[in-house]
């Protein structure tokens, strides 16, 4: 398992992580719902800085960027989900960034970057779908005194394929995360080589 080595914990690296975390937080502000997903699922590209960090500084740096981004969001914006949404965002983003960064960081080339992004996208989609089904959504519903059926109804209102809890996962959660992974991956591929020299100074 990759960990930050002693050299990685220098002030310059932590400043880079902090800057990327702030950029991630700013990108979180520009979120919007998608046509096939319930409104509590908001699309943004705030995972981009953590992927950049994971590629340039190592996979754990990507996780730290995710942590800082979500802490800033709670402190500055506040949480409308009693931190459930932010925790979910941290988990899914960290899975994505760590796996993609781990694969790329072992041998930095375009092929590994592509493999890392693809594997990271599918891994985060699979894991967050399981987590949402068994823990996150039931916990969210209990916390707010809602029934699972009401959450399903929110999905059905925008996506007629959503008729029960399982179909909510299959037709909303899964495509939402696949699309998010695809978009963020494409942007990462387009800009990483252009900005990586700045992060390696």
- Which fold name fills CATH's third level, the topology? Arp2/3 complex 21 kDa subunit ARPC3
Mean pLDDT metric: 91
| Element-by-element helix/strand order | HEEHHHHHH
Q: How large, in whole angstroms, is the Cα Rg?
A: 17 Å
CATH class bucket: Mainly Alpha
What is the CATH architecture descriptor? Orthogonal Bundle
The description of the largest β-sheet is:
2 strands, antiparallel
Quickly count the domains.
1
Give the N-to-C terminal Cα separation: 26 Å
Percent helix, as a range, is over 70%
Task: Give a count of the beta strands, DSSP E runs of length 2 or more.
Answer: 2
- Form type: globular
Annotation field: number of helices:
7
Q: Low-confidence parts, pLDDT < 50 over ≥5 residues?
A: none
Biggest β-sheet: strands ordered side by side in the sheet: 1-2
> What proportion of the residues form beta strands (DSSP E)?
under 5%
SS-based structural class? mainly alpha
Function: Probably a riboflavin-binding protein that interacts with the energy-coupling factor (ECF) ABC-transporter complex.
Keywords: Cell membrane, Membrane, Transmembrane, Transmembrane helix, Transport
Family: Belongs to the prokaryotic riboflavin transporter (P-RFT) (TC 2.A.87) family.
Protein name: Riboflavin transporter
Short descriptors:
Riboflavin transporter, 7 helices, two-stranded antiparallel ribbon, mainly alpha, 201 residues, transport, RibU, Arp2/3 complex 21 kDa subunit ARPC3, 2 strands, cell membrane
Outline of the structure:
By secondary structure, this protein is mainly α. 74% of the residues lie in helices and 2% in strands. Helix 1 (11-28) runs antiparallel to helix 2 (48-57).
């Amino acid at each position: 398992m990759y960990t930050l080595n002693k050299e990685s914990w220098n002030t310059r690296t932590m400043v880079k992580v902090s800057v990327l975390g702030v950029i991630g937080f700013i990108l979180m502000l520009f979120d919007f719902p998608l046509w096939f997903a319930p409104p509590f699922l908001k699309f943004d590209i705030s995972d981009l800085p953590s992927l950049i960090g994971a590629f340039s500084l190592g996979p754990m740096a990507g996780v730290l960027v995710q942590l800082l981004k979500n802490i800033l969001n709670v402190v500055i914006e506040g949480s409308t989900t009693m931190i459930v949404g932010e925790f979910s965002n941290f988990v899914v983003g960290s899975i994505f960034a760590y796996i993609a960064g781990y694969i790329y960081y072992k041998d930095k080339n375009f092929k590994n970057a592509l493999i890392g992004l693809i594997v990271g996208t599918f891994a985060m989609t699979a894991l967050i779908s399981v987590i949402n089904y068994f823990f996150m959504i039931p916990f969210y519903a209990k916390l707010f005194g809602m029934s699972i059926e009401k959450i399903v109804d929110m999905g059905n209102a925008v996506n007629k394929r959503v008729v029960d809890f399982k179909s909510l996962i299959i037709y909303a959660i899964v495509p939402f995360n696949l699309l998010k992974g695809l978009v963020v991956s494409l942007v990462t591929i387009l800009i990483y080589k252009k900005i990586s020299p700045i992060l390696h100074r």
